[in-house]
């Protein structure tokens, strides 16, 4: 297998061929992850790199069956299912995360920083059947929302507890507005996608409050997050496929704890940030509508 040439999918585009040594180098550098789709001669179709035995450290999966010819298309037009993945470099992700935080703290730059952060992160997401995903929102679309979010970051330092409690539903409504804005401004191959998030503001506030209350249980928040993500997915309309969240509460719990504990030591932050982002993105998947009901 060491003499094979490999192709991999990045942002819906076929990359390669690359010698296996080069592909393994890309894996080591994080440019190709366990959730990246790959193909080489002898495989029946594109597969996750983590499902190819011996390709990704810690990955395992069933052997592939031979199929002559070149690589099949990278889900360019059909509607299939499959998990989402994100292709982010170690330092670019850290840089954008820091820039986002600083922009919010400075308040005035928040609309511009947030918009360009979303454009970058969305461009790194691979969605089966939706090549060249992009975000087309403009900084001034909902500038007041990001200004308000920036201002609310300082509420936690206030000694007025009633103000802190009041900020919880306000933050929830602002986040709800951001999700609706992002969903309404997605495109694929330059064509706007008819996607909309139709979850109610009241429902979103309810989940936010429930999340805060769940911290009393120490670990219950992980199951609340899982149920909340599934509620958000159920309220995404306008697609031929339904969006699902596949992680369990236990998976959210232990991975988040590992992420937080490792970040306490500062140095692991870039690696843990990418690890967590890649895992979290891979827990969202697309399935033909009605698949879950018929399962």
From TrEMBL:
<dbReference type="Pfam" id="PF14237">
    <property type="entry name" value="GYF_2"/>
</dbReference>
<dbReference type="InterPro" id="IPR025640">
    <property type="entry name" value="GYF_2"/>
</dbReference>
<keyword id="KW-1133">Transmembrane helix</keyword>
<feature type="transmembrane region" description="Helical">
    <location>
        <begin position="93"/>
        <end position="121"/>
    </location>
</feature>
<feature type="compositionally biased region" description="Polar residues">
    <location>
        <begin position="1"/>
        <end position="16"/>
    </location>
</feature>
<protein>
    <recommendedName>
        <fullName>GYF domain-containing protein</fullName>
    </recommendedName>
</protein>
<feature type="domain" description="GYF">
    <location>
        <begin position="6"/>
        <end position="55"/>
    </location>
</feature>
<keyword id="KW-0472">Membrane</keyword>
<feature type="transmembrane region" description="Helical">
    <location>
        <begin position="209"/>
        <end position="232"/>
    </location>
</feature>
<keyword id="KW-0812">Transmembrane</keyword>
<feature type="transmembrane region" description="Helical">
    <location>
        <begin position="252"/>
        <end position="273"/>
    </location>
</feature>
<feature type="transmembrane region" description="Helical">
    <location>
        <begin position="142"/>
        <end position="162"/>
    </location>
</feature>
<feature type="region of interest" description="Disordered">
    <location>
        <begin position="1"/>
        <end position="20"/>
    </location>
</feature>
<feature type="transmembrane region" description="Helical">
    <location>
        <begin position="168"/>
        <end position="188"/>
    </location>
</feature>
